[in-house]
Amino acid sequence: MKKKLAAASIAILLVLGACNKTEDTNPNDVDNGEATPGNGAIDHGVDENKVGFSMSGDQVEEAENVPDEERDNIMKAFDQYIETLNNKDVEGYLATLSKEGYDLEEERKATEDLLETYEMKREPDNETIVKYNEKEAQLFTTMKTTFTELESGTENIPEGRQVTVFHKEDGEWKVFSIHFIGDESGN
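The structure corresponding to this sequence follows.
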């Protein structure tokens, strides 16, 4: 049962990131800057056309060129993205997503299905903007997500590192894509 729930939780994480409709991103394609799944993906560098982050020791390197107002707006957009799903606010959650990056009806269905089966709580930590320009920002975080199966009460708590890519649409920062690397644990 524990393996079944773990597999379901990983599938859910993939669904939440995979409903993204960008055809050009394959998380297992080393040529596009994405790391293959596993623990060794700590240091894939940030460059203009790639998603990623660099670490110096235990510290994630923050982008230096982020204006204070934009930093605040990006962090508010990320907080809303986290809070709406934690609060089962499907409409609010969908409003945080990019219309260019997601098929919103597909995402609605996947999110409603998820919330019918699981109680979910995401807990981000170490939020750091690692790449920024006027149209795109990448926010790194460590993420702990608690999935509690409603029927059985069984919990699974995957943890990992996530880069959330935001695009600016109509003057607002919207989640364009999610890139998650799970940490191995005994959970």
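The chain has one domain: 2-21+68-182.
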